Amino acid sequence: MFDLSLPIHSTTCPARFAPVFAIGNADPNHPFALTLSRRTPADLMSGRAAPLVLARFVTLAEAMQGAIDHAEDIAPDAAPYLLAILDRDEQLVLAGGASDGAVAWCHPVASATEARGVVTEASQLRAQSGRAAAWHEPALAQRLRHRADLLDARLVDPLWRAFAARALQVAA
């Protein structure tokens, strides 16, 4: 799923959130882009659903630190949302849930078999979310969608899997 050119799925980020990001820069020659999903209904209808590039970085470590710095500016009562680091080919390198001033990085899948299991589980969660919405349980539906998004965040591009897993070990 993340091998598509628009790898970020819907998140629970409130529509009123407009990130102000003063770190990194927008130099398109830098290989790592820290992104935020723009998948609100208005963005989908206007064609602006592509991820919003918050900043670009030279190294993955700098991009990870940029995500953490960004998460520190999140209001404590804000809904959690996903930040993703993409390479210059817009392939997913690493993603994590940002909330309460921290980023909980999603550990990448280790194999194609594990990726298929993650895709199946995320699909089931989205189906459950649809049923919860039909039962007029919007909070449950939102939690299920966010859980599915976190599972999808594990679908790192196969070329980056080992590198991203090692980066998380070093960061821990």
3D architecture notes:
The chain has helices spanning 41-46, 60-72, 112-134, 138-152, 161-171; strands spanning 32-36, 52-57, 81-86, 92-99, 102-105. It is an alpha+beta fold. It has a domain at 32-107 and 156-171. A 5-stranded antiparallel beta sheet has the order 2-1-3-4-5. The two termini are 27 Å apart.
Trace the largest sheet across and list its strands: 2-1-3-4-5
Write down the secondary-structure element order: EHEHEEEHHH
Q: Provide the gyration radius in Å.
A: 15 Å
Shape: globular
Sheet with most strands = 5 strands, antiparallel
User: What is the residue-averaged pLDDT?
Assistant: 81
Low-confidence runs of at least 5 consecutive residues: 1-24
What structural class do you assign from the helix and strand content?
A: alpha+beta
Percentage of residues in helical conformation: 25-40%
Number of strands: 5
Terminal Cα separation, in Å?
27 Å
Strand content: 15-25%
The helix tally amounts to: 5
Summarize the entry for a quick read.
The chain is an alpha+beta fold.
Structural descriptors:
172 residues; alpha+beta; 5-stranded antiparallel sheet; globular; disordered N terminus
Question: How is the secondary structure organized here?
Answer:
Elements: E1 32-36, H1 41-46, E2 52-57, H2 60-72, E3 81-86, E4 92-99, E5 102-105, H3 112-134, H4 138-152, H5 161-171
Antiparallel strand pairs: 1-2, 1-3, 3-4, 4-5
Helix pairs in contact: 3-4
